């Protein structure tokens, strides 16, 4: 019995006692339960690591290693688009060269004539593509099959027209017009030999010089009246696009001193949107007739009733004024009127006669080309032909005659005696003053130091 109790009390399984005291078993069970809870419920630190947090991109600083790109996710209702192809569009820009036609440019772009005719037939706006000018630019866009998708015609830096193929396989057009930035500019000069040289030295373009001469064409004969030390001041617009100068706008205000007499003019846009030049008091700078039918040229023969004819060597009256100028120089009508004759004769060559109202007729002889037809209405300063030497002429020049009530008068002096065009109406005088006085004030501010400098140069 004694041996038997001893062996039961010392029985072991796996080196551990098979039977514990009751207290020990309770402690062991509690520890096992707590351990299982620790495994199932993570600590706050572990939970924080497992829960993704939103990332504030603005607070992320750059590192040497790029952030990983998350894989795209889709909701059950979404299905990713697969195998979607976008058709490539090729673009080609071609500049119009001398002699180019639209067909030439389509061939160069390797687009079929069928596409060209489809575009030309899309509307009246497309027909202007048949009238291309050298220097203009065409930009073609076509797909891989060579089908035209769009065509842009760049007329100049400020405007272009674009034709685009629609879903109905037609072409629609859109005119895009940009407005340049305009800023006033000022130039002044004193004449030593000619207006052109003085203007060019002052930085004026040829077109601005001609515009200034046209403003004063009723008061100053730039072929006869210009003298050394005459001077001018002019304020005009300079136009800029994207910070780059692209050209000049109109003259805003101008002053010209000729033989000690000063003439001033300012630009005014009336209620109808028409722009003209007036004196500071609102009187029109235009007379019924301008002084000369050509831009600044040389008079080769004056009005002379007892002139010796250079061809026939006999005394024959010279009933007009001859202006020597290069062949092809534009000839302008000196006043509004109607063409009563336009043709050719052996003595006159190509000629144009214009009736102005009931009393006045002007004649233009020895033209290379006539630009008007009989019965046509013309406006002052409209081109009616070009200088030539047709008929009885020893060289290229324009013979100009002025008749009043059927009698020849001296063209160089008769214009001074004719009335001016209409002045600003009384109903618009307040508007005229509000628009023009700031321009004249700016011109005067510019003139102050400029005239002082002229006085220092010519004590």
Kindly summarize this structure in a few lines.
With 459 residues, this protein is α+β, with helices and mostly antiparallel strands. It is built from nine helices and 22 strands.
Overall description:
The protein folds into 3 domains: 89 residues, Nuclear Transport Factor 2, Chain: A (Roll), CATH 3.10.450.350; 146 residues, Nuclear Transport Factor 2, Chain: A; 120 residues, Distorted Sandwich (Glucose Permease (Domain IIA)). It is built from 9 helices and 22 strands. Strands 13, 14, 15, 16, 17, 18, 19, 20, 21 and 22 form a 10-stranded antiparallel beta sheet that branches. Strands 3-4-5-6-7 form a 5-stranded antiparallel beta sheet, covered by helices on one side. Strands 8-9-10-11-12 form a 5-stranded antiparallel beta sheet, sandwiched between helices. It is globular and about 130 Å long. The termini are far apart. The N terminus is likely disordered.
């Amino acid at each position: 019995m004694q041996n038997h109790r001893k062996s039961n009390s010392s029985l072991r399984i796996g080196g551990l006692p098979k039977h514990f005291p009751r207290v020990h078993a309770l402690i062991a069970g509690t520890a096992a339960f707590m351990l299982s809870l620790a495994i199932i419920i993570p600590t706050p630190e572990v939970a924080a690591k497992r829960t993704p947090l939103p990332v504030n991109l603005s607070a992320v600083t750059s590192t040497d290693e790029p952030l990983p790109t998350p894989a795209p996710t889709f909701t059950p209702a979404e299905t990713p688009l697969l195998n979607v192809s976008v058709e490539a569009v090729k673009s080609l820009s071609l500049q119009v060269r001398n002699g180019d036609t639209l067909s030439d440019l389509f061939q160069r772009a390797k687009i079929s004539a069928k596409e060209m005719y489809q575009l030309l037939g899309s509307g009246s706006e497309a027909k202007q593509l048949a009238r291309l000018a050298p220097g203009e630019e065409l930009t073609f866009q076509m797909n891989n099959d060579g089908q035209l998708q769009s065509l842009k015609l760049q007329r100049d830096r400020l405007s272009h027209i674009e034709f685009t193929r629609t879903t109905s396989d037609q072409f629609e057009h859109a005119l895009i017009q940009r407005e340049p930035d305009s800023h006033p500019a000022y130039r002044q000069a004193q004449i030593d030999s000619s207006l052109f040289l003085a203007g060019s030295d002052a930085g004026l373009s040829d077109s601005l010089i001609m515009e200034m001469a046209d403003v004063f064409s009723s008061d100053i004969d730039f072929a006869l009246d210009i003298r050394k030390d005459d001077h001018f001041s002019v304020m005009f617009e300079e136009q800029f696009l994207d910070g780059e100068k692209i050209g000049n706008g109109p003259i805003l205000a101008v002053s010209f001193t000729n033989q000690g007499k000063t003439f001033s003019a300012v630009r005014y846009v009336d209620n109808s949107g028409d722009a003209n030049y007036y004196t500071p008091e609102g009187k029109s700078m235009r007379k019924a007739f301008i002084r000369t039918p050509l831009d600044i040229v040389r008079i080769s023969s004056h009005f002379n009733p007892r002139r010796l004819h250079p061809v026939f060597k006999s005394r024959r009256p010279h009933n007009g004024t001859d202006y020597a100028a290069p062949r092809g120089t534009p000839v302008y009508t000196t006043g509004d009127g109607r063409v009563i004759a336009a043709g050719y004769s052996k003595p006159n060559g190509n000629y144009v006669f214009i009736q102005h109202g009931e009393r006045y007729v002007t004649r233009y002889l020895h033209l290379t080309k006539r630009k008007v037809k009989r019965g046509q209405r013309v406006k002052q300063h409209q081109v009616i032909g070009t200088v030539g030497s047709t008929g009885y002429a020893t060289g290229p020049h324009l013979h100009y005659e002025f008749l009043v009530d059927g009698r020849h008068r001296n063209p160089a002096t008769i214009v001074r005696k004719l009335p001016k065009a209409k002045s600003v109406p009384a109903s618009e005088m307040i508007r005229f003053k509000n628009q023009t006085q700031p321009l004249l004030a700016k011109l005067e501010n510019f003139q102050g130091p400029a005239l002082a400098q002229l006085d220092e140069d010519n004590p």
